[in-house]
Amino acid sequence: MSAQINYLSFLDFATSIIGLNNSEIYNRNVVSRSYYAMYHCILNEFGPFKKIPKKGVHQQLAINLSRLNVKEADEKKLKRLLYTLENERNKRIIADYKLDSQLNELDAKQSIATANKFISKVKSIKDNIQEN
User: Fold this and answer.
1) What Gene3D superfamilies does the record point to (predicted)?
2) Less CB within 10 Å around the terminal CB: N or C of the chain?
């Protein structure tokens, strides 16, 4: 990864194009880039992770996060984050592959809001882990 590109780069790009052109392709790109901001945030804050044979990258992420040594409260927060990430991944799949489905500006704005909250929660959990 380039030193100039990080997970916030994905979110910054998504934010910069929202509402720029009320076109579905823009909305699809916002949803997709917002998801990747969340995905790379987790990798950045908690990785690098051990590769697990015969598992997709998203399954590997979930398994590796479940192996982190965290307090029970943070474990529950991580599970909620994984649930959020999976929901946004499903939206990203629609954005990238399901051209017969429509994504509007509200969907795009929700993805940006979700990504912002997600990143804040990841940082909060990371801070709790470092304090202990």
Assistant:
1) Nucleotidyltransferases domain 2 (1.20.120.330)
2) C
Q: pLDDT (tens digit, 9 = 90+) per residue, 112-127?
A: 999 999 999 999 988 8
Contact 88/35 with Cβ under 8 angstroms?
A: yes
Q: Could you tell me the two tokens for 40?
A: 């790379």
Domains observed in the chain: 7-131 (1.20.120.330)
Task: Convert the chain into a string of H (helix), E (strand) and C (coil).
Answer: CCCCCCHHHHHHHHHHHCCCCCCHHHHHHHHHHHHHHHHHHHHHHHCCCCCCCCCCHHHHHHHHHHCCCCCHHHHHHHHHHHHHHHHHHHHHHHHHHCCCCCCCHHHHHHHHHHHHHHHHHHHHHHHHHHHC
Residue indicated by tokens 């509007």? 104
